[in-house]
């Protein structure tokens, strides 16, 4: 492949280029005469002019309370999401990560990230495997660096999409924070491209992965998030199977953006995918769309359209080509296998003026993608239809506990549900709309003949927190009966509810993690139901241990 990845590292589930030694990962120089590599640790280490040691010490002291601050901000969120509370947030005074996960200091090395060694760890009580990424707090020397770390954590906790890496937990130690993320074993898109015949993807292969990438991009943009560093290395496959799911990773440079037209100005990104407006220092979320165009070009040819992958390339020449969107479908032998529709898709995106560049939704509707990714016409699984219909009659408590279990499901447990979710996600947003649900359930070919009113009832029952769409894990909660649930899921769910790691839970713990108060639910009604249906003689303050919890959950799941 023409593009060369040197010194691969693993930075929170991603093999990225080493910032200090590899010219491709950069803080982009935006002066008219430069386009240079700058040493940076995900923008966290940069000194913004403060040379007072007292200031740095104050920042480090402040950073040690970051998780307490994060928990406070989550509880104040006006729009509640259970996913926020289903991420384990464990401060140093509650438990040490090594007491919960094996291998934090000596587990198998997945790679060397900018912030340290990323390891495979194992949950001690279940044996479930995850990736553990360290974030040293002693490297944070500015308020900007601290704010960026808080933003990264907040963004990771907010995301709920099948093509985005899932954050499992955040653990605080004395001088660092550890991120526990789902373990992605399939390698990154760069490595997959490198081993393809003739070092490029077929159009069918390319369209398949571009569809998944665009769904993730459209989703984060809908949530007011800009990634700012999309590249081959920041998309990982879930496993090594041919039909493995692709997932977006590494939100270390991501930011929330305002939809009022406010621009970003920080010169960050990676040389071979950076957009022209980043070089000019005035940009918005359309930079992520540009990166998708570059990646598509790379997947189809094995070459980067503007360069930026080779050592020794002229930075000024790369900059000039990017600013002018100067590229060509050459050499001919690389492109004679590519259709005019695929080339049209690339031209559609690689437009230097972001105002004329399409958004992610428009890209999804391009003829090329539609041709290769025609909507799955197979009917929705009868079992899933039955599960959703049954879920409509569940009580609030039962729905909420199903959702907690949904956040513990492993990839092999949800493979079939993932296929069914895609059938319902007719608009490719990573969420299910009422219109999309009706399109699928009201088909005459369905064995069950749903009326529009029944579809609306099912839709409302699955919007667990009043959102306008059904989120990925809401769907998993409704389809839980189609998954093989075991004690690993029960233990992980128990741990998510036992936030203080006491070894038992109370009704108040369940209220806290499910957000009953934040949702303005009738807590006393939930309490009565909880006590009446768990077959345990208890008062509200009594303790529920794991064995009793398993019995509760088995009643919920059946």
From TrEMBL:
Residues 46-60 have a biased composition (Polar residues). ATP binds at residue 133. InterPro entries: CDPK_Ser/Thr_kinases, EF-hand-dom_pair, EF_hand_dom, Kinase-like_dom_sf, Prot_kinase_dom, Protein_kinase_ATP_BS, Ser/Thr_kinase_AS. Keywords: ATP-binding, Kinase, Nucleotide-binding, Serine/threonine-protein kinase, Transferase. Residues 104-369 form the Protein kinase domain. CDD domains: STKc_CAMK. This is Calmodulin. PROSITE patterns: EF_HAND_2, PROTEIN_KINASE_ATP, PROTEIN_KINASE_DOM, PROTEIN_KINASE_ST. Pfam families: Pkinase (PF00069). Residues 485-520 form the EF-hand domain. Belongs to the protein kinase superfamily. Ser/Thr protein kinase family. CDPK subfamily. One of its GO terms (molecular function) is calcium ion binding. Its cofactor is Mg(2+). Residues 32-60 are annotated as: Disordered. Transmembrane segments: none annotated.
């Amino acid at each position: 492949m023409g593009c060369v990845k040197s010194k691969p590292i693993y930075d929170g589930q991603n093999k990225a280029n080493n910032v200090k030694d590899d010219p491709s990962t950069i803080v982009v120089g935006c002066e008219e005469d430069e386009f240079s590599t700058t040493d940076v640790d995900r923008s966290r280490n940069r000194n913004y002019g403060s040379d007072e040691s007292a200031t740095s010490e104050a920042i480090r002291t402040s950073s040690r309370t970051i998780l307490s601050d994060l928990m406070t901000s989550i509880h104040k969120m006006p729009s509640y999401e259970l996913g926020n509370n289903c991420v384990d947030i464990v401060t140093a005074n509650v438990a040490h990560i090594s007491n919960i996960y094996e291998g934090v200091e000596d587990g198998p090395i997945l790679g060397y990230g900018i912030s340290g060694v990323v390891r495979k760890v194992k949950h001690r009580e279940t044996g479930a495997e995850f990736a553990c990424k360290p974030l040293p707090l002693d490297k944070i020397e500015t308020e900007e660096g601290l704010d960026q770390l808080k933003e990264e954590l907040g963004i990771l906790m907010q995301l709920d999409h099948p093509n985005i890496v899932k954050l499992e937990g955040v653990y605080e130690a004395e001088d660092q924070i550890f991120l526990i993320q789902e373990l992605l074993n399939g390698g990154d898109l760069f490595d997959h491209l490198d081993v393809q015949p003739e070092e490029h993807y077929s159009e069918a292969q390319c369209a398949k992965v571009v569809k998944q990438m665009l769904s993730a991009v459209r989703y984060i943009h809908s949530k007011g998030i800009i990634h700012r560093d999309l590249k081959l290395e920041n998309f990982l496959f879930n496993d090594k199977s041919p039909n493995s799911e692709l997932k977006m990773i590494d939100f270390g440079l991501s930011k929330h953006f305002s939809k009022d037209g406010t621009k970003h100005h920080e010169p960050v990104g990676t040389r071979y995918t950076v957009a022209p407006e980043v070089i000019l220092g005035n940009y918005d979320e359309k930079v992520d769309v540009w990166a998708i165009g570059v990646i598509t070009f790379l997947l189809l040819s094995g070459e980067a359209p503007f360069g930026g992958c080779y050592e020794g390339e002229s930075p000024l020449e790369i900059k000039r080509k990017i600013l002018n969107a100067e590229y060509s479908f050459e050499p001919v032998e690389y492109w004679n296998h590519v259709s005019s529709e695929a080339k049209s898709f690339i031209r559609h995106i690689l437009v230097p003026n972001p105002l004329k560049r399409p958004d992610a939704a428009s890209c999804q509707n391009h003829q090329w993608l539609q041709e290769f990714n025609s909507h799955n016409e197979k009917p929705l699984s009868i079992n899933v239809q039955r599960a959703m219909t049954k879920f409509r009659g569940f009580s609030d408590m039962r729905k909420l506990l199903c959702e907690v279990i949904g956040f513990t499901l492993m990839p092999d447990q949800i493979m079939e549900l993932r296929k069914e979710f895609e059938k319902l996600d007719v608009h490719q947003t990573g969420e299910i709309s009422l219109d999309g649900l009706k399109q699928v359930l009201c088909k005459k070919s369905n064995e069950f003949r749903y009326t529009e009113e029944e579809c609306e009832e099912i839709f409302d029952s699955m919007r667990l927190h009043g959102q306008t769409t059904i989120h990925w894990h809401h769907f998993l909660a409704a389809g839980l009966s189609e998954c093989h649930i075991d004690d690993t899921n029960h233990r992980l769910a128990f741990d998510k509810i036992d936030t203080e790691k006491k070894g038992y839970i109370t009704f108040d713990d369940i209220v806290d993690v499910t957000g009953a108060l934040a949702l303005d639910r009738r807590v006393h009604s939930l309490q009565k139901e909880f006590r009446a249906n768990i077959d345990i003689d208890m008062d509200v303050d009594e303790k529920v241990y794991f064995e009793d919890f398993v019995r509760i959950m088995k009643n919920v799941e059946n």
